[in-house]
Fold each of these.
Amino acid sequence: MYMAEPESKRARLSVDAVDCDGRAIEDIELLPNISEQNAILTESDAGIEGYLRPECPGFKCILKNRWEDFIVQELANGELATLTTLDPIAPPASPEENIDESNTGNNPILETYKVELEELLSGKRDCVKIPAPESKVVRTAIHKALRSLSSKLSSTTVKEEIDSPSYILVSGTSQPSGVRCPKRANHRLSKGRRYCRFVLYKEGKDTISAIRLLSSYLRLNPGYFAYAGTKDKRAITTQFVTVKDVDSKRLAALNSRLQGLRVGNFSYVPTPLFLGDLDGNRFTIVLRSIYSPDCIITDAIDSWRSNGFVNYYGLQRFGHSAKSKSFEIGKHLLRGEWTHAIDLILIPTFADLPVVRQTKEEFLTSGDAAACAAKIPSTVEKYLLQGIAKHGKTLNALQALPRNLRQLYVHSYQSLIWNRIASRRVNQSHAGHAQPGDLYIQNAADSLPQIDAVDEALCLELNSNTSSNATTPVPSIVTAENYQDIPLTDVVLPLPGFAVSYPQNQCGRWYEELMKEDGICQQDLRHRVKDFALPGSYRALVVKPTDVNFRIEEYLDPNVPLVKSDLQRLVEVQNNTDSSNIPEDSSLESTAHPYRALILEFTLPKSSYATIAIRELTKSVVERR
């Protein structure tokens, strides 16, 4: 006999009762003035109302009991982002280091000092002194030519005494004592390998926060970093990142200062990452407190692996609270109802920090935007209140918000329509196969670039690389002659926009119907405000997990990890301890009632949500926050 974890040890929240910013439920309970009942965003609110195989039984379990129960590894070009070493590597050899006449820029002065400069680069000299010409133009040309010779050379014009002639001091990695250095060190890497690529390991942090922290330590603009997509906060994740003109030694030196972050597995590459430059993500997930028989679990996994799941957008895309739904804000923005949008953004919710909530409540009663803005730190609400103080509740006030946030609202509405259409589609009779008039793209999940609009908007905040050379294929139309030959995994649904095609069947008419209910027409998607215009895109209706592995384990302590992270394995290797298995609980033999957990490994294509995949598998998952 097996037992479920005691109620006192966990918070039983349904999967649709999630605080989407990852705050603990205890934090929510500190806000007694906000009614929690009816304040939590539900699956129904987000249009998630169907299963691909509702007839297949699921099983009860707890998801994300600990963030160590949710491990995500990025997959790119067949390579899994795995942290196996923290050691820096030597910068790439540069063809610039061997100086010859062809790379002296035809500068006769540098040709004269060619031998001395080569000795400087090889470490045989501390510096080279070149008489400085009187002409500033000529001196500038020499400095530029030196920089073109090698990234390891720096130069400055020196005049030691008033009556003494000036000279150009050329130095390498070290400088003689008493000699003035240039104000800024040159960190440029070899022209052929300008970017350091590394694996970013993080625990309990989102990608944006992690990048900001790294850029702060390195004193760089966050735009120097590039990555393929954002990863969950309440999870252990590894992903690839590139940074321009930063030596791996500088990055590796940060590891001793980082909490919940590590960087490693360095290499040098000629180009940065772009948003969407990944194949997908590999998940290792622990589902705890299961008590269904093994046969039920195995049958559910077999069906899930064979048929897949409805590729819904997850709840985290739609805001923190049912009182201030991000898609409702987006709806008002599309309709040009600036006052309504602003009022929704400023509604106090359970997800607010106490100081922010109190300020919102004060603004509702006083209406003094300037005074309220002065009371809170730099938050979204502060920017908006400052905008209201200057412009009133107008578009100009909304434009005080970061551009990425303004776009997130309308993308959320777009995602809601997609979810609602998908629910209607899978709840139809004969929904398990393609239908005449559907749109399809062969191998849709892999063929679509799937640059997630939310990721793209977040990247805009950091000025990261937001596009690659990927192009969206044009979908074909399922006909009465070929519908039986089209797998459901090839069927795509458009996100509403002015540049997409719609299904030529009842499904296509639903778009117009649902948007009309919201007071929005197709023309509104060509918004006069550029940030709110929606060209649209396509998303696979159904996705199948691949490379599925699972095992069922018994355990006694709910707080003991059942899988190991990359960092745990790395530490064990460094300490020469066995990292092959989690140590077994020796007391298991003495108890008749251990807990049971399903340890599930699988891969999903980019822009698909593991929580949505687990929802289809279990039918009754409880997500703990």
Amino acid sequence: MEGDEGTTSRCPCPSFASLRCFFFFFFFFCISIINFFLVSAAAAEAAADYGDALSKSLLYFEAQRSGHLPYNQRVAWRGHSGLTDGLEQGVDLVGGYYDAGDHVKFGLPMAFTVTMLSWSVLEYQEQVTAAGEFGHALEAIKWGTDYFIKAHTAPNVFWAQVGDGGRTMTAGRGRRT
């Protein structure tokens, strides 16, 4: 043993730890490349479907309309609704949008939604026009803003909710037209 100082024999094979490290990084690299291509393909597919998504979103607005529906209503299964809104109170609250799957109109969510739609059309007017939805978007905005004008019936008066949310949410569609 005294003469063996300084002489060590090394195996030409890499250690298990270095192989494990190499395979870990190789695996990570392969997953990263695959993920890059999957994300790129998904992004390209999503971009191609933007016009369709926009069209369906605007159809949803039409399906949520309250009031006397226009002749060009694209959601054929919908009919007029809420034609007596405000009648008992002596005000005309016909119009606007229902909040969800019920027959209640909530002013704050509707105001936020119409504001975001308006802002989106301003910000992305070129893309909305290219998708052929600019006119439908303007109609959706006007439907909401016309209702807000009606709901502001006097100075310092705004009808923020029309309908009974508790009743319609527990009794199905509840409200009659």
